[in-house]
Amino acid sequence: MTEEFDVLVVGAGPSGSTAARHAAMGGARTLLIEKRSEIGTPVRCGEGVAKRWLDEVGLEPSGSFIAHEVDGAKVVAPDGTTLVVDEARAGNECGYILERDLFDRHLAKLAAKAGAVIRIRTSATALLQEDGRVVGARLEGMGRTYDVRSKVVLGADGIESQVGRWAGLEKPLRTRDIDACLQYTMVGVQGDPSLNEFYLGSWAPGGYAWVFWKDTDIANVGLGVNLSKLRDKAETKAYLDRFISAHPHLGRGEILEEVAGMVSVALPLERTGMPGLLLVGDAARLIDPVTGGGILNGCLTGKYSGELAAQAVKDGDAGEAMVKAYEKRWRARLEESLYRNYLIKEKLLTMDDDLVNRIIRAIAEVGLERVSTHEILSALRKKHPELVAEFESFL
Q1: What are the residue ranges spanned by the domains of the chain?
Q2: What is the reported pLDDT for 362?
Q3: Span between the terminal Cα atoms of the chain, in Å
Q4: pLDDT tens for residues 238-247?
Q5: CB within 8 A of 188, min separation 6: which ones?
Q6: 322 with 277: CB under 8 angstroms?
Q7: How far apart are CA 115 and CA 25, in angstroms?
Q8: Which of 13, 57, 322, 324 is an S-S bond match for 299, by CB 3.0 to 4.6 Å?
Q9: 3-class secondary-structure state, position 187
Q10: What sign has the CA pseudo-torsion 312, 318, 322, 327?
């Protein structure tokens, strides 16, 4: 049995649903598949996003998926030195705290309203390829196996993308390019719910710990530790429990939910497409290597890929021109920050608490209009060149 669509999207997370929405809006007959029985679950996410990018991906903020709004963030060094920044300067993980399951379903609803067909409990098991191009995929779902032929396949199936592997585009991740993450949703915690909290240094070696507020006494409390710093994955829980115990405002809370997962902190794939196929968001490893945040990049590249796929269908050419247009677009928007932040991530793996303390104190002293890796390094170079001597190449 064979079906035909213009565009097939594999994976109904934020990347896939956004891609399906924009492909359908462009006039392409679009099928969006999700292997799980419910879109949006299980949640494996800190749920923090910046306000300013919603408009860029065509989303209106809504109480239906926003749990809490914060004014900014405080970045805490190992010695307790605290840098407070407002939301506009706090990067891509601060502004709104989502109900991520509801957010994912909201995006899927938008895709459906745009005309996309959605099938849950449906998995891709292989790509269909002819003459060096992807022409669809073999699917399993609802007790049947069948082929869907499509002019474009959009792979949005996460950091261990099977679509990318079948296409020969994905390489195995190195240990140092993975963070092991664990998060508790806790009730009864205390603190300032107007400011998210980021803790650096040995609380989470090679990564950071976070407190993302969902209400006045409810927060996501978690951390990511670079896998190269762990003897086994179970150590992540010991790090998180130690962090909570050392901070009384958190230690009084009770755990409602626990989620764990791996996050890529790697460079993007060298190639993110081939004729008939584009990889989107986490599947292309378009995740910020410093923060581990991927929602913004997933939605952006979902928009780009969906629009270009629809145009390729209209033009009757889903070959190399489509791939080059996609890579040109996402690289122009994201590449510089992704590569710089990867180098920063590599440097953070070697930094001890004393150096982190000195840098946070220096940043607090310098003052910044906006917190970004480039502006931090530029400001420090002017007043504390000794702290950025090893970072000069990043500038």
Answers
A1: 2-44+102-173+269-335, 59-98+174-264, 352-394
A2: 82
A3: 56
A4: 999 999 999 9
A5: 217, 252, 253, 254
A6: no
A7: 7
A8: 57
A9: strand
A10: positive
205 by Cβ neighbours in 10 Å (0-12 / 13-18 / 19+) ranks as buried
The structure tokens 């004014």 sit at: 71
Position with higher pLDDT, 388 vs 155: 155
| Packed helices 295-315 and 320-330: angle between N→C axes, nearest 10 degrees | 150
Q: Nearest 10 degrees: CA dihedral of 124, 125, 129, 135? A: -20
- 39: DSSP letter: T
Of 98, 103, 84, nearest to 15 (Cα)? 103
Return d(Cα 94, Cα 49) in angstroms, integer: 5
Q: Residue type for 112, please?
A: A
CATH number of 59-98+174-264: 3.30.9.10
Residues 236, 254 contacting (CB under 8 angstroms): no
Between CA 99 and CA 395 the distance in angstroms is: 37
CA 91 remoteness from chain centre:
13
Asked if residue 42 has a cis previous peptide bond (ω within 30° of 0), the answer is yes
Tokens of 355: 């150096």
Which amino acid is residue 266, in one-letter code? A
Q: Which helix (H) or strand (E) holds 137?
A: strand 133-141
SS3 281: helix
Instruction: In whole angstroms, give the CA distance from residue 177 to residue 342.
Output: 9
SS3 152: strand
Q: When comparing pLDDT for 383 and 323, which is higher?
A: 323
Distances (CA, A) of 105 to 29, 109, 149, 233: 20, 6, 26, 30
Q: Which residues pair with 69 in a beta bridge?
A: 96
β-pairing, 72-76 vs 195-199, is: parallel
Pairing outcome for strands 144-155 and 277-279: parallel
With 0-12 CB in 10 A as exposed, 13-18 as middle and 19+ as buried, what is 336?
exposed
Residue 265 CA, chain-centre distance (Å), reads: 10
The residue ranking higher by pLDDT, 33 or 337, is 33
Class of domain 2-44+102-173+269-335: alpha beta
Question: For the segment 219-241, what is each residue's pLDDT rounded down to a tens digit?
Answer: 999 999 999 999 887 899 999 99
pLDDT at 363 over 90: no
pTM of the model as a whole: 0.91
The single-letter code of the amino acid at 388 is: V
Report the distance separating Cα 43 and Cα 34, nearest Å.
Answer: 15
